[in-house]
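Listing S7. Sequence submitted for prediction.
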Amino acid sequence: MLYFNIIDKNKINIDFDKLSLFINNLCTSYKMSIQLIQYNFCSEKEIKKINKDRLNHSYVTDVICFNYTKDKIMNADIYVCPSFIKTNALIYNISFEFELHRVLFHSILHILGYDDKLYLNQYIMRKKENLLINKYFYENKKRK
């Protein structure tokens, strides 16, 4: 089950049903099943505290993913900071919607086993994110 913990869903313009279906299908294509993936949308203050307390990093970030997956059964807690994502979208001159989906897919790719510690892996992961974004928005247009 995918769970989106958002205090005010009106501030995040996402079709959560379509997003859930897309992520479920993606995970199934990797022969993985979702037990529980919880997306927690939080403030910059909250994500900085989580980053400090759990990872010993003293900065704000767009997403933090704690992966508890075992034996192809996916479990994870994901913390997403919309205000930081909005700032990045402005910096990179892209829409908030595009950047938000990139971050959501980025976290799923981590759970699926992708790593971005090395530059080459970052490149591979970014290409995969972009493919997922294009597929997601294309599929959603086809369904309308």
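Caption to Listing S7: primary sequence and predicted structure tokens for the chain studied. The first helix runs from residue 16 to 29. The two ends are 24 Å apart (CA to CA).
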